[in-house]
Amino acid sequence: MWASLLPVGRDPESGGYRRFVWTAPELECRAWFLDEARRRDLEVERDRNGNLFAWWYPEGIDPSVKGVLTGSHLDSVPGGGAFDGPLGVVSAFAAIDLLRERRVRPDRPIGIGAFAEEEGARFGVACLGSRLLSGAIDPGRARGLTDGDGRSFAEVAAENGIDPDTIGPDEELLGRIGCYVELHVEQGRALTDPVGVASSIVPHGRWRFDFAGEGNHAGTTRLADRRDPMLAFARMVLAAREAAERNETVATVGKVHVTPGGVNAIPSSVAAWLDSRGPVDDAVRRTVAEIHEAARAGAGAHGVTVDLAEESYTEVVDFNLDLRDRVVKALGGVPVLPTGAGHDAGILASRMPTAMVFVRNPTGVSHAPSEFAEEDDCLAGVEALATVLNDLACG
Ligand code: GLV
Ligand code: MN
Ligand code: MN
């Protein structure tokens, strides 16, 4: 399974993945998912928000009994690694295979979810599929989100067989899920055992800064006559690092659009995206406020304007304690750790008990081509997930 998914959307030069929702490589991943599901006689379902599910209804089971959901996502950040998302989906299929090999007969349905646009790499809002499903984003706002080519979520969803008028919370589907356990590659170096369990997800969000100045000639415009938005932007980037240090948070500017982007032209505008996260809401809010202040000062000094818009914000998520303890117990006592990464399990936590199982990442690198997990650790992850599913779905 892993080998068949590995070439999909991989850049042959960098080894990084680009699997943006509803682009060709991501559609190939979806086809792969449906194929793996059918190969196992799982019942496939695509919900009205574009999320995919594969359900195992053991014979004779009452289908109205709430199921145990596992899975993750198949999309990637630009230039991402192979493991972030797909490891959870592949491990879910492999865990079901193990349970069947062992002749386990669950008393509850077991489902595998592949959530749409988890990274928010195409439409800007992370975990868009699970946000829509759980009611964490207004469907009208989601419809209007645009990708880098200016195409709306509504338009692209419609092209892919989703009726944009029916996106949004799906109580019927949520009512069929008793709990969600997502397996994921660990994205830092905190986990030194093969497998661990998540305690919480730190508060995190995304903000867009728009700097507008005056486009002009790079050779003929005197320094005193310029209104260069790049200079205010540069101040903002440096301020992000300083504010993060002061507030013991992290702040990253990883995406920027310069218009028009000519070597010999002073830009007319710069759009920049800030990602900030930290242990507590206040510290993250303060970080962003300080960066905004610096951006405003930079804008004032250079005769440009700056607008700030919050694109998403997720407060701290403390995973359900009972479920977490049960998972840790089933695994015979494994480390419990917080994470600075966002996940669908964090979004769905508002609607059902959720938990996460992490697989060790020896270098801690993630969202980059060198993201890695040892095969033995991945197999330990599959074994752990099978154990957890066995515990939650039987008896
Ligand atoms: C998703 O991986 C995120 O934490 O941004
Ligand atoms: Mn990710
Ligand atoms: Mn992920």
Explain what this protein looks like in three dimensions.
With 395 residues, the chain is α/β, with parallel strands linked by helices. It has two domains: 2-201 and 317-393, Zn peptidases (Aminopeptidase); 204-314, Alpha-Beta Plaits, CATH 3.30.70.360. The protein is 34% helix and 23% strand. The protein contains twelve helices and 15 strands. It has helices at residues 2-5, 24-39, 86-101, 128-134, 139-144, 153-159, 171-174, 229-247, 281-301, 321-330, 344-348, 375-393; strands spanning 43-46, 52-56, 67-73, 110-115, 177-185, 195-201, 204-212, 216-217, 250-259, 265-266, 269-277, 305-314, 317-318, 336-339, 354-359. Strands 1, 2, 3, 4, 5, 6, 13, 14 and 15 form a nine-stranded mixed beta sheet that branches. A four-stranded antiparallel beta sheet has the order 9-11-7-12, covered by helices on one side. Strands 8-10 form a two-stranded antiparallel ribbon. α8 (229-247) packs antiparallel against α9. The longest helix is centred in the last third of the chain and has 21 residues, at 281-301. The two termini are 30 Å apart. The structure holds glyoxylic acid (GLV) and manganese (II) ion (2 copies). Residues 119, 126, 341-342 line the site of glyoxylic acid.
